[in-house]
Amino acid sequence: MPERLWEALWDLWTPLLILWITLLPPCVYSAPTTPAPALMSGSRLELSRLSEEQRVLNRSKRGWVWNQMFVLEEFSGPEPILVGRLHTDLDPGSKKIKYILSGDGAGTIFQINDITGDIHAIKRLDREEKAEYTLTAQAVDFETNKPLEPPSEFIIKVQDINDNAPEFLNGPYHATVPEMSILGTSVTNVTATDADDPVYGNSAKLVYSILEGQPYFSIEPETAIIKTALPNMDREAKEEYLVVIQAKDMGGHSGGLSGTTTLTVTLSDVNDNPPKFAQSLYHFSVPEDVVLGTAIGRVKANDQDIGENAQSSYDIIDGDGTAIFEITSDAQAQDGIIRLRKPLDFETKKSYTLKVEAANVHVDPRFSGRGPFKDTATVKIVVEDADEPPVFSSPTYLLEVHENAALNSVIGQVTARDPDITASPIRFSIDRHTDLERQFNINADDGKITLATPLDRELSVWHNITIIATEIRNHSQISRVPVAIKVLDVNDNAPEFASEYEAFLCENGKPGQVIQTVSAMDKDDPKNGHYFLYSLLPEMVNNPNFTIKKNEDNSLSILAKHNGFNRQKQEVYLLPIVISDSGNPPLSSTSTLTIRVCGCSSDGVVQSCNVEAYVLPIGLSMGALIAILACIILLLVIVVLFVTLRRHKNEPLIIKDDEDVRENIIRYDDEGGGEEDTEAFDIATLQNPDGINGFLPRKDIKPDLQFMPRQGLAPVPNGVDVDEFINVRLHEADNDPTAPPYDSIQIYGYEGRGSVAGSLSSLESATSDSDQNFDYLSDWGPRFKRLGELYSVGESDKET
């Protein structure tokens, strides 16, 4: 305590002492006439020689001043503050010397009187901005500005005063501490900074304290470590605390500056509270027909803790419904869900009682002494009656019936009942989608299944049908049950050869040689497997050629009795074999084995089995025979094609009237009998084609040879003979095979209706040519005058 008192007194008087020293007149030290032995801690101003004579006769005198000056920061007075004074012995007071100041802040912060050497601070100084200034002073001649001595360097230090309060740069702060912590548990630490000089005085010496937040927390004054001041603080009572922290300089004494910050302390949760059901008894009701897995109800145990500390698991620990119900935990809602595990039956049991337990999943052993972290509750579940569908006496049925069962015989029976108290009668039916062939029927009242159509085990062994039970009082209540019907085998199929066998016997075979091994098959399926008996027909027992032998594998071998078989004498042998099964009663069938006699090589390889092979020339193979046969067939095809083409060429040129061929000139080699001769040709073909229904035009075929086109003819003069012109054109058309039929001259026997000239055709004339007089044509006009002249000329030629 005394030490702190002295420190406080020193901190109080030191600034006053420095201020008093600064305000005193500056001390000027004159150097003695004898040379100084050494420089003191100040800078020196060396005196310059005034003249050469003085350099010889006199010794230079030196003036000494401090090399360090001090000035208080933040000094603000009406006048500039005097920092110090420079002086040299070369200055006799005649004002012939001038002082010059240069360096940090010269002229801006520090100003020197060039005559007296006084240095003043003309601005307010802040040590936190700049703690010291380095300057250079020099004495020069007032008139010539020539240096009188070398420049001297000195330092002006800014002395600190307590002008900065402590600051918490990282505030406000947040910290977390577990609830129920012991006394003195460290929470966090904070740090404040002070911009004042930590070396000089106590301006930067900080002391920490709590202004708000007691009595819950405390702080170390020097280290600022914050600790809990109370034990077992409960988060559930109060979760968050606000602490105000102060940092004060000057060692915490009065007059010091201070700064504050806030610290928010949050208590983190620990599992110190057990779960607790909101009520001790829960009631639920559920219909008896509810689907398995359906949620019946929820129970919840509240926990004051949070997060994983509040997680609880739920279990059914007792009760008469432990096998019927189950409970699962919902991690999201933190409750227990009771679900149905097995079907309910109101008629069997109408209510259940369960004891449910909720226990914490994460238990903290530090708090196990607070008691068990679990709680229990009672759950009562009431089953409600519902209209249930019929219930079959079995979930599935398996029936068996022999395949030779009589129609309408009873195969089996299904039973069902109404589980409700009302006990409605049941009606049975078959789902015909499972019995499309309607092989079975069922009695709607008693559920007896009967056979409707014959069964065949070899076609289908299993028949799967579905029986429907419907309540008569409520047709919406139905149930279904699968019924599997197995058809049992009876011996109704005789054995037979497993396949079509054909044996080959070599002419050079030996007696006792196995010709063929055959096996039998039976569609029936006896319990002890198949066993076949083989024998020959009674009339074939003493067969001179072949015999049979039963093998251990239920097969049969056919053996030759002798050698010397000849296919020219007998090519094929038929051997009937009787096959019997071991059924009750046994069934049998006769299968015939065909044995062919063949020519074989010396090693027994069959080469030919045909009799014609003996008459073939030596060396002619089967391939050659096939080639010859193919050539014969090819020749026959060529002949048929040739005959067909010949018939096609001889077809008449008259075609059906449905083909689009224009009417052409038709020439006949016979004269015919005139208009009265109707048998030579159809006169209707020369009449009006509009009125003809059954005319048969020519069928022209385009020739293969090419005909050279004829040269164009010059226009016909007026004096040419028309008859000759027509004949020439007709001759060209007849001899030109390339001319299509519609390029020929068209002559019609019908002139058209309304012509004043009438018809020019001689076919309709009842008289001969000699009776015709064509003079009247000249009266028809210029166009018919020339025609009349031609006919007149023709008549005169005939008469001549």
From TrEMBL:
Keyword Cell membrane recorded: yes
Intracellular or extracellular location(s): Cell membrane
Main location: membrane
Keywords: Calcium, Cell adhesion, Cell membrane, Membrane, Repeat, Signal, Transmembrane, Transmembrane helix
Pfam families cross-referenced by the UniProt entry: CADH_Y-type_LIR, Cadherin
InterPro entries recorded: Cadherin (IPR039808), Cadherin-like_dom (IPR002126), Cadherin-like_sf (IPR015919), Cadherin_CS (IPR020894), Cadherin_Y-type_LIR (IPR000233), Catenin-bd_sf (IPR027397)
Described purpose of this protein according to its UniProt entry: Cadherins are calcium-dependent cell adhesion proteins.
Annotated protein name in UniProt: Cadherin domain-containing protein
Native species: Pipistrellus nathusii
Species lineage: Eukaryota, Metazoa, Chordata, Craniata, Vertebrata
